[in-house]
Design brief:
This protein is α+β, with helices and mostly antiparallel strands. The chain has three helices and six strands.
Length: about 170
């Protein structure tokens, strides 16, 4: 046999081998095991917060309170009370809970308070239909202060009376 006839076949085999090797190398690229939620805002860090107070009242009268203070103390003070889950924590456990809420929420410096409210409710697993009152107040290290108050009156009509006829 003449070697001339095998040239194109050998070339095709070499090209296929190179492509198969390249594909094998590319498939070994490490892939992330888990994608993080993109709900949170960019740059929220509890280290940048000097005071954080969140009070939520639900329609059934239950309350949720988160309080964090770090005014140049050795250890920041933190407490969390959730009537809806019959839990109360302080110290390191409360600090961890508040850190998750702050760092997973939309940017605290956002000029969209409704987005911030919805983000906090999502993190606390509270349905907005259950909300009666929402109060958030915080202060950042750079001096930024913010206070958001939202009160929901269920069943009110345009004339200022509720469905039970009481004036509000």
């Amino acid at each position: 046999m003449k070697p001339k006839g095998y040239g194109p076949i050998i070339t095709i085999i070499v090209v296929l081998a190179v492509l198969a090797g390249a594909q094998g190398m590319l498939s070994r690229t490490p892939q992330p095991e888990m994608l993080q939620s993109q709900v949170g805002g960019p740059g929220n860090s509890l280290k940048e917060v000097t005071m954080f107070e969140l009070e939520i009242e639900l329609r059934n009268g239950q309350e949720i309170e988160l309080l964090y203070m770090d005014r140049n103390q050795d250890t920041p003070a933190a407490t969390v009370r959730r009537d809806d889950r019959n839990t109360q924590s302080s110290g390191e456990e409360a600090l961890n809970e508040i850190q998750i809420i702050v760092e997973s929420s939309p940017a605290l410096t956002s000029s969209e308070p409704l987005t911030l409210i919805q983000g906090m409710l999502d993190q606390l697993e509270i349905n907005q239909a259950d909300l009666s009152e929402f109060e958030l107040e915080f202060e950042l290290m750079d001096g930024t202060e913010c206070k958001i108050d939202l009160e929901v009156e269920a069943g009110s009509s345009n004339d200022g009376t509720t469905s039970d006829g009481a004036d509000r």
